[in-house]
Amino acid sequence: MTTPARMFALKRALATLAFAAGVCGFAGISTATNHPADNGSATTIIGANPLLSDGASALEAGQAEEGLRLTLAGLSAPGSLHDLAAGHANACAAFVMLKQWSEALEQCNQSIEMDHSNWRAFNNRAAIYVAKGLYDLAIRDIEAGLVLAPNSQILHESMRVAKRNKRIIESTGRRSVPS
Fold it and tell me: Which residue ranges form the domains of the chain, and what is each CATH number?
């Protein structure tokens, strides 16, 4: 039998999971190769591709469908490897917002393969893993992001959420937080 305390913990874990999907940082579009000015903040840096820029702006405004449409259109245009990788990270974030986990994971993986220096892509992929109850993988990705942006408040909050959800799940004996 589930105690009221466990029910509260599960409800809190569900709310935290929803929050985790919301804290995924958008990759932004940048022409800087190593993100020298990126200290892990949530600021989006806009580059030369107007579709990718507009897509990032739409995502930051919470318009997942429009942001995804613009981002996918922008990805079809030629661009630097860095800008395309950031675009894939943004597409990943849009799919996370839409709770389309398989598509999100594909986009995040493409982004990370193209540019291993974007901490936001690791954070976005961690949000997918949290949603799927794969907390160890989420924590691994957040740790990789923290190597790149040790002062990122977004990454530190994502780590707190992933570890807390993992503890809740382990204490209840479930495989994942129910959706």
Answer: 40-172 (1.25.40.10)
The pLDDT of residue 104: 97
DSSP state letters, 83-131 = HHHHHHHHHHHHHHHTT-HHHHHHHHHHHHHH-TT-HHHHHHHHHHHHH
Q: How far is CA 5 from CA 14, 63, 102, in A?
A: 14, 36, 33
Own/partner contacts of 4-10, CB < 8 Å, gap of 24 or more, are 6/171, 6/172, 9/168, 9/171, 9/172, 10/168, 10/172, 10/174, 10/177, 10/178
- Model pLDDT, residue 174: 66
Could you identify the residue written with the tokens 């932004």?
28
Note the pLDDT of residue 48: 76
Please answer whether residues 105 and 128 qualify as being in contact, where contact means their C-beta atoms are separated by less than 8 angstroms: yes
What amino acid is encoded at 104 in this protein? A
Q: pLDDT means per 10 residues in the chain (179 residues)?
A: 43 40 40 38 57 94 96 92 93 95 97 95 95 95 97 96 93 64
